[in-house]
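Internal QA ticket QA-208
Title: Verify multi-chain structure generation after dependency bump
Assignee: T.L.

Test input:
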Amino acid sequence: MTVQAVPEPATRTEHLLFLDRAAVRTCAAGIDPVAVVEDVLRAHAAGRTTLPAEGYLPWSNSQGAYCRSIAMLGSVGDADPTVPTAYGMKLINAATSNPAQGMDRAGGVSFLFDTETARPAVVAEAAYLSALRTGAYTMSSLRHLGPEHFQEVTLIGCGAQARTHAELLARYFPDVHTLHVHDLLPERASAFASWVEAGELPFTVVPHGRAAEAAAASTVVITLTITDTGYLTPDHLRPGTFVAHVSLDDLLPEVFDRAQALYVDDVELIRDNPRRVLGRLLGEGRVLAPGTTKPGTTTIRGTLGDVLTAAVPAERPDTGVVVSNPFGMAVLDVGLLARVYAQAAADGHGTRLDLLGADR
Amino acid sequence: MTVQAVPEPATRTEHLLFLDRAAVRTCAAGIDPVAVVEDVLRAHAAGRTTLPAEGYLPWSNSQGAYCRSIAMLGSVGDADPTVPTAYGMKLINAATSNPAQGMDRAGGVSFLFDTETARPAVVAEAAYLSALRTGAYTMSSLRHLGPEHFQEVTLIGCGAQARTHAELLARYFPDVHTLHVHDLLPERASAFASWVEAGELPFTVVPHGRAAEAAAASTVVITLTITDTGYLTPDHLRPGTFVAHVSLDDLLPEVFDRAQALYVDDVELIRDNPRRVLGRLLGEGRVLAPGTTKPGTTTIRGTLGDVLTAAVPAERPDTGVVVSNPFGMAVLDVGLLARVYAQAAADGHGTRLDLLGADR
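Actual output:
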């Protein structure tokens, strides 16, 4: 699908379709987000995506809390007519003081651009879409790199991401019946359990007082925290465990050292960010990029896209631990929004904003 | 003025104020855009702005036309309570095939972010604001670096930028009675003349068939084209002429070689773009950055902000040609939008968009 504004030469209006979170969620319910994410990952592995350097503006607010804006442009599928073509941007801002005020830490808007005129054509609430992208990536990694069979999953961190992951687990892994959970704030874990119950999701929620305890309770561990300090050692993880290291700073270096296999979404994105543990280990040569080896040192097998295109074999955990470390690619948000927009256009969702107003 | 979202903890809504072009224009009519631009230029000269590297996504459309999206983040005034604090972004996209379809080449939206939560707080039509910024910069440069007295002005290029410049000339330079104009498309020059007449702007419009002829017709030359090929030589310009080189590729290198004085908005921005003539000349050492000299070679005097803060003397044209070469700074858009928003908030303009919709 190619995004094109409806031409209206007679009146020379310029419109932008606005999709609030409710509209995004409604439209997303009609698509298969894991299939969309896998399409984009395959396109990315084939070099048919663009991920320009992101714009980054940091500041401190009056409480001294870290605030930032990130503008992430991306395109999918330009060179291949079999893949949907989409150009867009995710604008995602965050303040570390937001959760204490009852707000999600991060929020923003995502755009699609008209392929022909380059005009912004769609603007959508970004946080739900971003969480859906993240969760869908986890589901895909579990499908291809997780244990063959599992019925229990551990979620460390019980915020917004945990909810999206729970919804997707119910949809894509119907065998799962138990969620082991931990949050630094026990009341957040309780609120999550109540939300699961109220939403009639098919899970028993088991709260754990310590993260390590939760990690040891199942063979599928998904980290969804905001920590910048590692806390999980290899000893906390059972043999045969798959770790979706979504929050990127939960695993201590030793877990990477001893991993049975390690997969990423994009080696360069990870290398470019030495503030995250795997980027630092890559920079230090303690973990190696695909294609290089050194005895006793872990080499990244490849990307999930490489697995999906069969360029790299999938290795599921048996006696060791398999780690997936996705840095997060805006191109997945853009690809998902393109599908959400197609659904919105078909079903008549969203609000048309007239950019010019009475000024013609 | 500091941008802050209205807290609504009880309902947990998240709002974004949408300002279409008509609203932006109405609000802008209530402010002094040249004063705002000069405030921001002084802040920039004092190092109280941030201009991160911009995000840039280029592609070709189905006609093979060049398309691009630029995401330009910027902040003003963080470190000084006497200057309005604002954080924001301009998202400005363009396709070279747009004008042939009756659309402005470039368009997009600009944002302000809430200082405390980092959430996008205001989204506004960007093209008018961008043109206003550009025109206001030209007015400021004319005020400080132009001829002491002038009653005629030359506009080369008769598109949207020419209209904004004409409106601002009428407001800030009431002595001007004649506009000499040229456009590659004579019908665009005629349409501009009709627009001036219909809008009762106090100008006689004199169309010229050749750009060089128009340039020679007055001592204030403003280039507002989309050319990427220089066409003005020193011989086309009268002694005592001020050139606002807004479109950045109209002057041939010899004009810079022989300039009486040369001013810019930001030396690094210009140096970083060797696709524009002055960036290329700087890279080649044919024009020198402030603080360096070589006999027979032009040195950039400084920025307009340096002139406004009296760090660098203002030199008006007498026997030679003074050139202003503004690359264009998103931080001016952000500063202008902050003032426009204050006016919108005071007068109740704009539409509140609920980002979450029914999803709470």
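Spot checks passed. Residues 4-11 of chain A have pLDDT under 50 and may be disordered.
Status: verified.
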